[in-house]
């Protein structure tokens, strides 16, 4: 009888240990993603004269659609750079009117590193072109407006 009860205790301990291990693994799986933080990209319209900014951003896996950004407002999105072997890339096309545009890489590992960004990248659109807002250095001019509108066949491969 004593032998059967110790066997029952061992079985109970084994079952409880298995349940506890499964709970820990489940919790780790769910919370592991918090260790792989979101990154944020912000595109802010600082054009004067009440100009609405058209913004169209994409990645290799999705199209964020065409956005009409009112003055002093921003378009932003968040993502996790999932693939460890291929760098995540978001690119954008912006236009303040029918006569000017800029195409730029909004987020890559290289761009984030170049401008010392951690998890937030800030792009600021002004009358003379595109700026990047660097926390330690302010707004830095990145690109001036190209003339005309980019034609569909001119757009880089997506």
UniProtKB/TrEMBL annotation:
The keyword Kinase does not apply. InterPro entries: Self-incomp_S1. It is found in: Secreted. Its main location: secreted. One of its GO terms (cellular component) is extracellular region. Keywords: Secreted, Self-incompatibility, Signal. One of its GO terms (biological process) is rejection of self pollen. The keyword Signal applies. Belongs to the plant self-incompatibility (S1) protein family. This is S-protein homolog.
């Amino acid at each position: 009888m004593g032998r059967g009860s110790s066997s029952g205790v061992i079985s109970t301990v084994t079952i409880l240990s298995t349940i506890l291990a499964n709970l820990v693994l489940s919790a780790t799986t769910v919370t592991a993603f918090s260790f792989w933080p979101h990154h944020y990209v912000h595109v802010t319209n600082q054009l004067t004269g009440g100009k609405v900014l058209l913004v169209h951003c994409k990645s290799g896996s999705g199209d964020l659609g065409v956005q009409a950004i009112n003055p002093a407002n921003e378009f932003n999105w968040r993502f996790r750079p999932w693939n460890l072997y291929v760098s995540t890339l978001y690119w954008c096309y912006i236009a303040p009117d029918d006569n000017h545009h800029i195409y730029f890489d909004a987020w890559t590992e290289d761009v984030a590193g170049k401008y010392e960004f951690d998890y937030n990248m800030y792009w600021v659109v002004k009358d003379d072109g595109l700026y990047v807002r660097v926390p330690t250095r302010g707004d830095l001019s990145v690109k001036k407006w190209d003339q005309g509108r980019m034609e569909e066949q001119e757009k880089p491969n997506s």
